[in-house]
Amino acid sequence: MDEATPNTPSLPVEWPPTAIPGQPTAPPPAADPEGVEVLDLLRDAIRRYVVMPSDEALTATTLWAAATHLQTVWQHAPRLAVVGPAKRCGKSRLLEVLIEAVHEPLITVNASAAAIFRSIGEGNPPTLLVDEVDTIFGSAKVAEKNEEMRGLLNAGHQRNRPTLRVTGPNHEVVKFDTFAMAALAGIGDLPDTIMDRSVVIRMRRRAETEKVSAWRYGRDGLTVRELRTGLAAWLASVREKALALEPKMPVEDRAADTWAPLISVADLAGGHWPVLARTACTAMTDYEAGRDEDGGLKIRILADIRRAFASKGDQPAIRTSRLLEILNADPEAPWAEHSPNGLTPRGLQILLQDYGIKSANRRFPGGHQAKGFTRAQFTDAWTRYCPPEATATLPVEPGA
């Protein structure tokens, strides 16, 4: 059976994820064999039918689907924003698989806000899956007509944010719950307030070399539904443990609220999942921050330069020309589209000027002299602005 080939390397974080100098190091969570197995199987199933944009996105989607089975535990209900630049990027196929994996799926296309909050109900809400969400938010004019939907999706990210409606013959004020996890698939980004509350999966069109298995509802849906049964049973058995869990988060503020259920599920499973989850969290939130033109790119460039040095074996210096080649060659990074010629020496200088980092003439092996940077120039900025440094598993390239 053909499977999708992961198209980005993983950069696993070190354990513990938030080590404090001078404090004893906590051991990684012990593995729960049942949890590790069912998460592994679900991850493999998603990869079998969908070409995901990265291993990190695959990990995040797996954990998000698992987290829907413990919605009654979480303080926040993260959205899964499945977006792509065009048709045929696998968005709907991913929703098809998730329908069979999540808790009580409620699938809809272009539903009204009133219909959705009346469907949520009380207690253990369904999992909302909205396809073709671009028909709701695809343009400013259309989005303006759907402000109620946007408000519902924003409010439902957190507990105890009901919507009030006057209903019935006596015109009584009734509270309707809004809290529910939701997957939203469409072309183009969703409104900023929703993206800020989402785990963002940026799909892309499958290349000819990327193979997946055909999806057949009656056959393959049954296989994933069997995984859902095992997933729900395992998570029900660890519910009390989940209630008491306070996971160490590699991010802060709203990103921490959004990712906490996913990190918690990973910690409940233990084994390799806590590291996979935190790697995904760090990489994906860094990427989304890098898309923010109001300073986000300046954070993203530091992290990507650190990865570039790691790919060169953490040599003490790197040529500016080679650094730009590495940055512009990354298909998941924004640098190739930074200008018509990609990221240029001038563009790099502008991004780094606030950190006081400049290129200078350096002497490299073989006696060659060229403009370049030293690793030491970045260590202070990496410490101040980037997450804990990753242990790179990229192949080390020869030369500078």
Task: Describe what this molecule looks like in 3D.
- It is built from 16 helices and ten strands.
- With 400 residues, it is α/β, with parallel strands linked by helices.
- It has two domains: 33-290, P-loop containing nucleotide triphosphate hydrolases (Rossmann fold), CATH 3.40.50; 296-385.
- Strand 2, helix 4 and strand 3 (127-131) form a beta-alpha-beta unit.
- It is globular.
Q: Tags for this entry?
A:
three-stranded antiparallel sheet, 400 residues, single chain, Rossmann fold, disordered N terminus, 2 domains, five-stranded parallel sheet, alpha/beta
- The helix fraction, in percent, is 40-55%
Indicate the proportion of strand residues.
5-15%
**CATH architectural label of the largest domain:** 3-Layer(aba) Sandwich
* Quantity of strands, as a count: 10
Topology overview:
Elements: H1 33-49, H2 55-67, E1 79-84, H3 91-101, E2 105-109, H4 113-120, E3 127-131, H5 134-137, H6 140-145, H7 147-155, E4 163-167, E5 172-176, E6 182-187, H8 192-195, E7 198-202, H9 217-237, H10 239-244, H11 253-269, H12 273-290, H13 296-311, E8 317-319, H14 320-329, H15 345-352, E9 360-364, E10 368-374, H16 379-385
Parallel strand pairs: 1-6, 1-7, 2-3, 3-6
Antiparallel strand pairs: 4-5, 8-10, 9-10
